[in-house]
Amino acid sequence: MLTEEQIAETRANLRELQVEHHDLDQVIDHLMLNPPADDLLVRRLKKRKLLLKDRIVALEHLLEPDALA
């Protein structure tokens, strides 16, 4: 079980990751709509976005383990 302090830190971390994920989504969309897009950059950003999503899901599960069961 997490302490209140750990829960607060995890929520803050989760929010930061969600903001970064959203920002990456906007950058990727912008790059795709305004060619010439740097394909390597877009691939790297998409990979980073997927890694962030995985971390977000893990933190959400940590905060609310019963919600996913």
Describe the model.
The protein has 69 residues and is mostly helical. Helix content is 86%, strand content 0%. The chain has three helices and no strands. The protein has helices spanning 4-33, 39-63, 65-68. Helix 1 (4-33) runs antiparallel to helix 2. The longest helix is centred in the N-terminal third of the chain and has 30 residues, at 4-33. It starts with a helix and ends with a helix. The model has no long low-confidence stretch (mean pLDDT 91).
- In total, the number of strands is 0
**Gyration radius from CA atoms, angstroms:** 15 Å
Instruction: Name the helicity range.
Output: over 70%
Strand fraction equals under 5%
The dominant shape is: elongated
Largest sheet: none
| Count, helices | 3
Order of helices and strands: HHH
Oligomeric status:
single chain
First-last Cα distance: 16 Å
Low-confidence stretches: none
How would you state the average pLDDT, rounded?
91
Structural class: mainly alpha
